[in-house]
């Protein structure tokens, strides 16, 4: 049984002029201990997916259809009290900005102790000992002193490590990390990612890493979902997607990486921009930006099908890759 199984997840936002679809029939599975990357540009639906899994959508957003099975239990319509027992306890989320996650008027110790006592029957002393142990686990120096400090007294990298320590307090089976290193220096980013990887491998924790950085995905994840305009347009092993992308959008993302351009040359980019949720094209959502679009792309949304070693939603995938496949067979 999968740790997490998502089927046909559809999220809508109720607007004055009618509902708009933010996620359109998203489906995927996550095994225990597996690391899954979700990539795409801003507006692709990555963060909405993470918030939906945690049942943290705020009005006017709501789950319109589909199921989210966590260890065989559908959590979409779970009562708030039961969902609170899962959220933070068995499923946890790391947000982009630690200063949004941490309460500025409480010490680190107060926040960690409150988190533990909300889910466990512990004395304050017992909770503090567990907090110190978790701070050591994320390589926080002098953890006893950190318990007495406020978030503003710590560096950005230290705060993000504190957030990870809080996430680990209750030994969750699934961690959703939403751009966890966005505001950090490059060296600190590498440290945080190495820490997450180490924790997932040692404790068999499932990880969903939401990011726009394909370089991070290539180093951190086993499988990758590429999202565009609220849909999964390519899915498969990270190695296959990075080395042999099938969808024109995925190819564009990889070609836009700085290392794909010679020094002194302009970086490559995908022309155009992500469509607004209120103006998603009738056919393939990527059609207005795609150099290979045909009439069928303009009129009919593509189904996701198996091609090569991945799943891809593209009407023209066979034509685009036919010459390469013929050359390989020859």
Automatic annotation (TrEMBL):
InterPro entries from the UniProt entry: AAA+_ATPase (IPR003593), ABC_Ni/Peptide_Import (IPR050388), ABC_transporter-like_ATP-bd (IPR003439), ABC_transporter-like_CS (IPR017871), Oligopep_ABC_C (IPR013563), P-loop_NTPase (IPR027417)
A GO molecular-function annotation: ATP hydrolysis activity
Keyword Nucleotide-binding: yes
Subcellular location: Cell inner membrane
SUPFAM superfamilies documented for this protein: P-loop containing nucleoside triphosphate hydrolases
A family per Pfam: ABC_tran
Record-level GO BP terms: peptide transport; transmembrane transport
Domain of life: Bacteria
Signal peptide (from-to): none
Record's keyword terms, sorted: ATP-binding, Cell membrane, Membrane, Nucleotide-binding, Transport
GO cellular component: plasma membrane
Domain ABC transporter: 6-254
Membrane topology, from the record: Peripheral membrane protein
Keyword Cell membrane: yes
SMART domains with a match to the protein in the record: AAA (SM00382)
Family the entry assigns: Belongs to the ABC transporter superfamily.
Protein name, as recorded: Oligopeptide transport ATP-binding protein OppD
Species: Pacificibacter marinus
Gene that produces this protein: oppD_4
